[in-house]
Each structure stands twice: as C-alpha cells, then as structure tokens.
Amino acid sequence: MAELTERPFPPGDYPLIVVGSGPGGLQVSSALRGHGIDHAVLSADMQPAGMFRRWPFFQRLLSWTKPFAPVARGTRPYERYDWNSLIPETDEHRAVMVGLMDGTSYFPSRPEMQAGLEAFVSRTGLRVRFGCRWTGTRRLDDGRFELQTSDGTYTAGTLVFAVGVAEPWRPTSPGMELAAHYADTRPVEQYADRRIFIIGKQNSGFELASGMLPWAKRIVIASPSPAKLSVNTHSLVGIRARYVQPYEDHVLGGGVAILDAAIERIERGDADGAPFRVVTRRSLDSVEMVFDADDVIAATGFVAPLLDLPDLGVATFGQSRLPAQTPYWESATVPGIFFAGTIGQGSAGLKKHGIPSNSGAVQGARYNARVLARHIATTRFARADERPAVARDQVVDFVLDELTLGPELWHQRAYLARVLSLDPTEGIRDDGIVPLAWFVDAGGPDAIAATLETDGTGAVYPVVYLRRDGTVTEHPIEAHPLLDYRTASARSDLAGILAPMLGRA
Amino acid sequence: MADSAEIADELAGFALFADLTTPQLMGVAHAFEEAWFKDGERVLRQGMTGSGLYLILDGQASIRVDGEERAKLSRGEFFGEVSILLGEPPVADVVALGTLRCLVLASSAVEGFLNDHPTLMYRMLQASARRLRNANRWRS
Predict the structure, then answer these.
(1) What residues contact residue A317 under an 8 Å CB cut-off, 6+ apart?
(2) CA angle, corner A453, sides to A426 and A96, nearest 5?
(3) Domain boundaries, chain B
(4) Which of A87, A147, A217, A350 would you label with B11, given CA atoms 20 to 30 Å apart?
(5) Is the minimum CB–CB distance between A324 and chain B shorter than 8 Å?
(6) Which chain B residues are closer than 8 Å to A224 by Cβ?
(7) Is A64 helix (H, G, I), strand (E, B) or coil?
(8) ipTM of predicted complex
(9) CATH: 1.10.760.10, 2.60.120.10, 3.30.70.100, 2.40.50.140. Which one for B4-139?
(10) Per-residue pLDDT tens digits for A116-156
C-alpha cells in the first residue's frame, strides 16, 4: 500500500512529468506505468481526487456506478455500467467504486468518489508528490521543458497536464464582482427564506437550484439562451434528469422562474431593500426586467488553469480557455505538451451530430488517458506496440463483441474506435483503441474502425469506417433495441460491409 | 478565447446578424460553441454524416471537392448549411487555411434556430442566393 504522505519525485530531471492528481492525472500515470514509462507526478493538492475533494456542492455525482448490471461486476464490460472507477492495468482492483458505495444511490456521493480515487491510488501503489505546486514553465534550448514548482525546478522532455477545468470564471458584465461564484456557495441553510438569483443554465446552476428548493423563498435562473434538457437532446448535453425539478417548479408556478435574458448589470440595492438588484434584458423582445435578490450566484463555469502555457505558444479557445489539441491530446501548437483529464475536451473529435465526447467526465477521460499513454510510449519513448493478430474468420465476431461489450466505444461514442489494420505482409492486426478523428483524417494503410454513434434521436448504433486505398467511407449498422450486436442480422450486415476489405487481406 | 459578450460583439459586425438586438446576439453567442482548427485540419468531411453549421470568426477555409479547391471562405462567412437543410452528408471537404476559429451549431439545432431568427434566415437565404448566382456564372 502506498503511503499518501510520502514525498517521492524530488526536483530534478525526469523523462516525463504529469501535473495533477485528479482522475485524469492518476489514470494517465497508471497507464504510463503499465507501459514501463518512468515519470513523476506532481500535485498542488495534499490528497488525490482533484475537484472531487470539493465538488459537486450538493455532494452527489451525476455519473452512475450500478451495483447490479447485465454483466459480471469487475469485468471489462462492466465498465459500461461503472462510470466512476479508474481502470487498472491488471485485472486486480477493477470497479473500486462499487465496493465503497453505501447502496442508497447508484450515483456516488462526493465523499464516496473521493474515497474511490484514494483507494485506487493506495491499492495500485501509484505515487504522487503532493503539496508541490506548479508555478511556471519554460522551454529550454534543447527543446525540453523546465517546470518551476513550490518545491524547486524540474525538467522533462514530455509534459502531461491534468489540471482540470477548475478555475472559477465569471462574465465581464458590470457589477458581476458582486455575485458569488458557484465555487463559493455557502452552506445551504444560510439561504433559508431568501431570494436567490442564479446566473447560468448549465448543470451547476440547476444543481444549486435543486438543492435550494427546500430553502429559498424565490429562485430565478437566467441566461440568454434556453435551457437544454438531456432527456430532450438524447445525450449528456443539457440539464441532467437529476436536476430537472426546478424546471418543473417553474412550469407549475412554484416560486422558480427560468428566464432567457442577458444580464446587463448587477447593482447594490437600496439600504432598506434587497441587497442586490439584477438588471436583465429579455432575449425575445429586449424588454428590461429588474429583480431584487438577497443572493446572486454566478454558476458560469470554470476555465482551465494553464498558468503561463499560452506564453509558451499553447493556443487556447472558447470560454473555458481549453488548449487546442490534436486527436491525441497534444497541444496543437507546442509539441511535447499533452493534456489528460477533463481538459482533454479541447480535443473535440468529430463531434458528429453536435454531440460532444464524454472527455469532460471520468467515464470518457479515463479511456483517453490510456490511449494517450500508449501513444506517448510508442511515439516518444519508442516502446514496441502490442498489435495481436486476428484470424480473418474471427474478424466479424471480434468487431461485434467490441461493439456490444467494449466500454471505450460505449463511453466515447464517435470519438474512440477499435481499429483493425490489414496489411498484406502482417495480416490482420488489432491496433487497439484509437481516436476516430485520427483514423479518419491521418491516412494510413487499409484498416477498419468500429465505433458506436448516436444522432440525437435516441438511437445508439454501430458505425464501421473503412479506410481503403487512402479513402475513408462510413457504414452504419441498424440499431438493436437491446444494444446487443451479436445477432445474425448484424453479423450479416457487417460481413457484407467488410467483404471487400477482408477479400484483400 | 472569448466570453459570450465578446462573441456577441464580434457577431454584431457580421452582415448575417445585422438585424439582431444585443440580447438576441447574446443568445446566439450562448447557443453556438467555439471551435479551433489548425492549418490543414478538416472541419467538414466530404461524404461523412453528422456535420454542423459553422460561422468563421477568424481565418480562412478552403472548400474542396475530391481534393480540388472550389472556393475560399473567410471571416463572417458560414458553411455546412446545405448538408443540414438537405439532410445529406457534405459534398465537399472544408479545410482550415492557417489557424481557423469558428462558431458551431449542431445540425439538430439549426431548424429551431433559424425559425427563432427569421431575419437571420432571410439574410442566410440572400447569401446562399449570391453563392448560387456566382456558381452559375462560373459554369457559364
């Protein structure tokens, strides 16, 4: 058992440095170790778990770990039903979370999630230098990087930043500094009998509203565009079902108002009235609406804490200031700097039908981290890549098994794919899990990529991509009501799609 | 990088959004997402389903059919609408020429968005008509 209080990795030179000890940093460290890559892990925190040490504010996650599932607990297919456990490099220590939850909910509590991440570190013997804050970065003349930290100076040829998207952000509207940020929400009983104005219609705003329903006198939730609900988008885009109660209270006239309006300014109220006055302008007709409030909370999101990386040339984009990344999560503008964890959302992938990856959540980021570790091991440390042979008469069943049971494809739809390459000399090889955007755009030998996709209608269906003579074509397979593609119909469809490729191999 | 207010300010300078009020522009800025592409990266892929409506904030994009460039688009111009309106995969690749920064609206949200903003829809029709006219000139 690793001691969480030990302080490994003193300042010095390392082949690779991971910054961060949330799920992203821990998963990439575990996977790098599995590939035999010597590396240091540095964390400003004193314990693992990253943002789960503080949030979600109302102490229960939005991601499942289902104790009972159609497949055996602790197996690879079970990962589809366990969104919260990190993935060990051996079969031991799988599904850590399920053994730590008290059974009252299949959404773990925040302390259970923290305990799960700590247990993963402890049971797998991961090592982290805690209490070591990254403070600056420099590119050396030889192309390596220098990291300045609270403990001293480190150097490395490859950096992986898994620092989350955890720095509170608020818009620049006048008076916005008067609003508390989500991150500074007080204990809920302190909002009893008060008028709460929440800025932002993301899950964080609705999480606060849901928790405050039994306490607040009135809740207004406002932002310029309408709220999306996940049950309508048929994806994880929008307000999750857990937090829809304020919406129902709104439509039933229960003291909750949900407005499509821009926040023009926040002012201090009159001495004898409410402490704050929020001036808004309705999106529909530009009508001004003014609200008195006892508390104004900006549930307006977070940005990636990249410190001075933009000064090194790391391009960023969007409100969250995510680093622009390649399909393999490398900075698009500074080679050698990689990203893991929720910050990996900056590698958007194909985003087919507008549906994003799950890279912002543990169940997606954990697979990205494993693919990233393998990519780093093979491309920057010349490690041999394991590419097992697959017999030609086994290809159809192999692909259908992956489409039905492969957790990477389930959690990262249209983002990660299982790839088989077909080389006249090597035969058919399992190239493992690969970013779909890389498969589609990077070119290469004849190959098959299998993934799962959804188009916003609610269906989940397999799509097979064939790369033949450098041209990639797309071949959907009909959705199955029980999401099991090991059927005669799917077998026949897939065999027909693959026939031109397998005939060549 | 930009927040919604800054994006709304940028949109206000584009002909497509000329009829929208500031709160409406803020709504648009919230509804779209920002995307960033490096030089040579494909934004739309010929023959591949599931694309979106793109509006260029910075940079240029090349429209390529079977690898042959047919047109270039720049700041304030949009693409992806034909495939969404027809419910068919794009008939061209769209490739970043240098760094390209766009706003994106998912295909599933486009119909509702246009219905909610009829003046914008009219301006989009005008732009499409100009493209059609120019394409016909090019052919004749």
Answers:
(1) A324, A346, B1, B34, B35, B36, B101
(2) 85
(3) 4-139
(4) A350
(5) yes
(6) 4, 23, 26-27, 29-30
(7) coil
(8) 0.93
(9) 2.60.120.10
(10) 999 999 999 999 999 999 999 999 999 999 999 999 999 99
DSSP string, A77-136: GGGGTB-SSPPPSSSTTTTTGGGG--SS-SS-BHHHHHHHHHHHHHHHT---BTT--EEE
Number of H helices, E strands in chain A: 11, 22
Range 20-49 of A in CB contact (< 8 A) with B: none
Asked if B107 has any chain A CB less than 8 Å from its own CB, the reply is yes
N-terminal to C-terminal alpha carbon distance within chain B? 43
CA atoms of A228 and A366, how far apart (whole Å): 26
For A37-55, give one letter per residue: b (16+ CB within 10 A) or e: bebbbbbbbebbbbbbbeb
Structure tokens at A497: 């799609």
Question: What is the SS3 assignment for A198-230?
Answer: EECCCHHHHHHHHHHCCCCCEEEEEECCCCCEH
Contact (Cβ atoms closer than 8 angstroms) between residue B54 and residue B80: yes
Domains of chain A in start order, with CATH, are 13-166+303-379 (3.50.50.60), 176-300 (3.50.50.60), 392-502 (no CATH)
Name the residue facing B38 among A225, A332, A456 (closest C-beta): A332
What is the rounded distance in angstroms from the CA atom of residue A201 to the CA atom of residue A203?
A: 7
Q: Cβ–Cβ of A262/B27 closer than 8 Å?
A: yes
* pTM for the model: 0.95
φ/ψ of A158, rounded to 5, equals: -135, 135
The end-to-end CA distance of chain A, in Å, is 48
CA distance A398 to A486: 10
Is B99 close to A281, i.e. CB distance below 8 A? no
pLDDT, tens digit (0-9, with 9 covering 90-100), for A210-220:
999 999 999 99
